[in-house]
Inverse folding.
């Protein structure tokens, strides 16, 4: 997308959207895998007041976004964080679909998926 419309890349950098996307994906992956349990957070870290799950998630997203901004430039965060997470999510989804007996399109899929389908 950025190679076809370089102005989109410029806007993503200015708006910081790359960091937000990566932060949300990292936190959501940690929650889904059990590495992070939102039930451990009952109080807001700054105010000490009871917090809802939505408030806690917002805090976690913002904290992760700050960490990414300190460590990576806007292009690196897409290349090193977002795209590997997109690939991981796609592979998890494909694995689940194959386990449920669905046939998948024949794009360049990992060998383990071909083996699961018995076509390798």
């Amino acid at each position: 997308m950025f190679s076809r419309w370089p102005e989109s890349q410029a806007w993503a950098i200015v708006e910081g959207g790359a960091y937000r996307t990566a932060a949300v994906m990292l936190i959501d992956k940690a929650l889904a895998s059990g590495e992070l349990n939102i039930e451990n957070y009952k109080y807001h870290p700054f105010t000490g007041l009871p917090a809802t799950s939505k408030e806690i998630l917002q805090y976690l997203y913002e904290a992760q976004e700050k960490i990414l901004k300190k460590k990576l430039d806007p292009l690196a965060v897409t290349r090193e964080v977002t795209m590997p997470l997109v690939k991981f999510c796609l592979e998890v989804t494909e694995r689940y679909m194959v386990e449920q007996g669905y046939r998948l399109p024949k794009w360049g899929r990992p060998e383990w998926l071909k083996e699961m389908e018995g076509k390798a």
